[in-house]
Design a protein that fits this description.
Elements (H helix, E strand, L loop, with lengths): L8 H23 L3 H18 L13 E7 L3 E11 L2 E10 L6 E7 L10 H12 L3 E5 L21 H13 L5 H18 L3 E11 L1 H12 L5 E5 L5 H6 L20 H5 L7 E6 L6 H17 L6 E6 L7 H15 L34 H15 L5 H12 L10 E4 L6 H7 L3 E8 L2 E8 L11 E7 L4 H7 L1 H4 L6 E7 L22 H11 L4 H18 L2 E9 L1 H12 L5 E5 L6 H4 L21 H8 L3 E4 L14
Parallel strand pairs: 4-5, 4-6, 6-7, 7-8, 8-9, 13-14, 13-15, 15-16, 16-17
Antiparallel strand pairs: 1-2, 2-3, 3-5, 10-11, 11-12, 12-14
Helix pairs in contact: 17-18, 18-20
């Protein structure tokens, strides 16, 4: 068997798609010739960006701020702050204030990157102190699941996920509710800005925002959405979505705004929403965020600013090192903010004395749970419980129509093109157990071939088998499942052929990008393409269901009689959606199936991948609704829980 013979197919497909989008975008930028053109472009992207963050709360609730302590220093002091960005959802932060304030001072919102220490990480303490010494008031907050805002505990989780994995667990779960983790992160920042602007010491006309890496991402989001910001300096984020996919670089859940690529935007467009607001883009020479694209996209920003009549409101600084908010980048930010805030003083940072994280705690022991804060998991579980009560029961027709829309399934009448592939004469397993094997590449859409292997009844090399067929979708690799799983091999008989289908990214087309060795790596290739699909408004799960539907059409066009679907593990969910959507209403057997998506909502840490989740599905129905609609066409065996291990379950 040729394992992974199409291993770069999915990657090349998405690179090609995004290149097309970026080519169209660049042509539009190049066509802008005057102030009126630039104003129209800014208005267009501002509207598009709001669509990406449509899951932001509709109204603000009381912050209920609390000052829990104070630390005194020669040139500044720190107040320890807690506020609620949502009811019961508490945010920990440090407010750095200059000594001897005699008039209102400029303020800066500080946003952290991916550090376990959050606001207490050395680079973030450093820039907060550096700004305070130069006359700025700085409010820096802990991101979700960083610093004091722990989201997972040994009491309710089988293990404590790492920082990035933890972000993705929270973000992946939100997909089921049509939510976006980036909106949660952005809302925390907006509410932190609300608190900063409540302070009588701050000048509301001079408000900056800065951060690095994930904090650079959030700086960019705040700059796009909040018109109260007057100057921005994101570090080590801005390059291009094209660079990230080309370079096989997955991003955290909050860094993949839903639909942003579908609307033809790139990262730099987020910084143009309020052009010509003073904006400094920073990067690093050897950053994994590719500075070649940072430099190219900066040209777009500068062009927009120039067309709008502003000659000195856009800047670019590339530090000499690797990813991080280095001394050089901090000093570039000081110079930028001082210039645009009208302050004078030294640019060189000078001596900075940082503290151990414990001294900056706003809580007694460094855990916001001490203050009875809710977690993301608790809030989303409660939201779903309320949503579940209000949902209406759907007819089978309505369920099918909604599933078709959510999964983005087009209606195609013509059978797909296919290619008979040379199979390996060395495949002793297939010859011994299944008489003969033939492989086909079924083209579900341009650039995507669905690898399909047939076993059992003999048939010609160039044509699919006629008669009755069991179509199997496995747990990440259908052909390997057949080799290793005796329960699946039992479906082969003298009366039916067995076809192993690997939808895009499964088995034979499993990508070896991102250094992935395992399909289920939480930050690997499968996650990368699922996240990319979200930005394209093309749910990866839905595209796989479409692949299966096209393979069914392929077999029917070749003379197949009855097709029965069989799915195992993550293939079981794909199988039931294909069964409910195909016009010929096939029977379906699912093994090691997920009882409901509600199981994921109600489990803090789970193993099912992002590619198993249709966006927004739980706003309308859950898997049991599909199981019920299938009725006697469905056979279920051996359910799995959120950890993809056997459970006892009664439907």
């Amino acid at each position: 068997m040729f394992k992974h013979r199409y291993s770069h197919m999915v990657h090349n497909y998405y690179v090609g798609r995004i290149r097309e989008i970026m080519t169209r975008r660049q042509a539009e930028i190049n066509s802008l010739a005057c102030k009126k053109d630039a104003e129209a472009y800014v208005l267009k992207i501002k509207k598009a960006v709001k669509n990406c963050f449509s899951s932001l709360p509709l109204k603000k609730t009381p912050l209920n701020p609390e000052i829990t302590g104070r630390e005194e220093y020669k040139d500044y002091y720190i107040e320890k702050i807690i506020f609620e960005s949502r009811p019961g959802f508490k945010v920990s932060g440090n407010l750095y204030l200059p000594r001897n304030i005699s008039k209102r001072v400029p303020g800066v919102l500080g946003l952290c990157g991916h550090s376990d220490e959050g606001k207490a990480a050395v680079p973030y303490q450093s820039f907060s102190i550096g700004l305070a010494k130069r006359g700025f008031m700085v409010f820096i907050i802990d991101p979700i699941s960083q610093g004091e805002r722990k989201q997972f505990s040994e009491k309710n989780s089988p293990y404590l996920p790492g920082l990035c994995h933890g972000h993705n667990i929270m973000g992946n779960r939100m997909i089921l509710l049509g939510d976006f983790f980036g909106s949660w992160r952005l809302w925390d920042a907006i509410r932190a800005l609300d608190y900063l602007l409540m302070r009588p010491e701050v000048d509301k006309k001079r408000i900056g925002v800065t951060g690095n890496s994930g904090g650079g991402t959030l700086t960019t989001y705040v700059t796009a959405i909040d018109d109260r910001i007057t100057m921005a300096a994101p570090s080590c984020f801005i390059c291009s979505y094209l660079a990230n996919i080309e370079n096989e670089l997955p991003s955290d859940a909050e860094q993949n705004p839903p639909g942003i690529l579908a609307q033809g935007l790139d990262q730099i467009d987020l910084l143009m929403c309020h052009a010509p607001r003073p904006t400094l883009i920073m990067g690093q020479y050897d950053d994994f965020f590719d500075i070649r694209y940072t430099r190219e996209r900066f040209k777009d920003l500068k062009k927009i600013h120039l067309l709008l009549g502003s000659n000195n409101s856009s800047g670019l600084f590339i530090g000499p090192g690797v990813h991080g908010y280095s001394l050089e980048n901090r000093e570039a930010m000081y110079a930028w903010f001082m210039k645009h805030a009208g302050l004078r003083g030294p640019i060189k940072e000078g001596e900075i004395l940082t503290e151990a994280p414990r001294k900056l705690f706003v809580t007694a022991h460094g855990d916001i749970a001490e203050k009875k804060s809710l977690t993301v998991y608790t809030i989303t579980s409660r939201e779903y419980a309320l949503l579940k009560k209000s949902k209406k029961k759907l007819s089978s027709k309505s369920l099918k129509n909604i599933a078709t829309r959510l999964l983005g399934i087009p209606i195609l009448k013509n059978p797909p093109h296919y290619k008979p592939l040379r199979y390996s004469s060395r495949d002793e397993f297939a010859k011994t157990h299944f008489y003969k094997q033939t492989e086909f590449a079924v083209e579900s859409e341009s650039g995507i071939d669905v690898l399909t292997a047939t076993y059992g009844l003999g048939h010609g090399l160039m044509h699919p088998p006629a008669g009755n067929i069991d179509l199997f979708i496995g747990h990440g690799s259908s052909q390997e499942d057949i080799e290793k799983n005796s329960e699946i091999r039992k479906f082969v008989s003298e009366k039916r052929s067995l076809a192993a289908v690997d939808p895009r990214g499964f088995g034979q087309s499993m990508a070896k990008t991102c250094g992935s060795k395992n399909f289920f790596e939480p930050y690997g290739a499968d996650y990368l393409y699922a996240a990319t699909g979200e930005m394209l408004n093309e749910n990866y799960f839905g595209r796989r269901v479409f692949d299966i539907l096209r393979v069914m059409d392929f077999f029917y066009s070749g003379g197949a009689g009855e097709i029965r679907l069989i799915g195992r593990g993550i293939g079981s969910t794909l199988a039931v959606f294909a069964a409910i959507l195909h016009r010929l209403k096939p029977e379906v057997t699912i093994i090691n199936y997920l009882p409901s998506f509600e199981v994921i909502i109600n489990t803090p840490v789970f193993e099912w991948p992002l590619s198993s989740f249709p966006r927004g599905i739980l706003k309308y129905f859950d898997l049991p609704d599909i199981y019920h609609a299938l009725g006697q066409r469905l056979t279920k065996k051996n359910p799995w829980g959120a950890d993809m291990k056997p459970i006892k379950y009664q439907a």
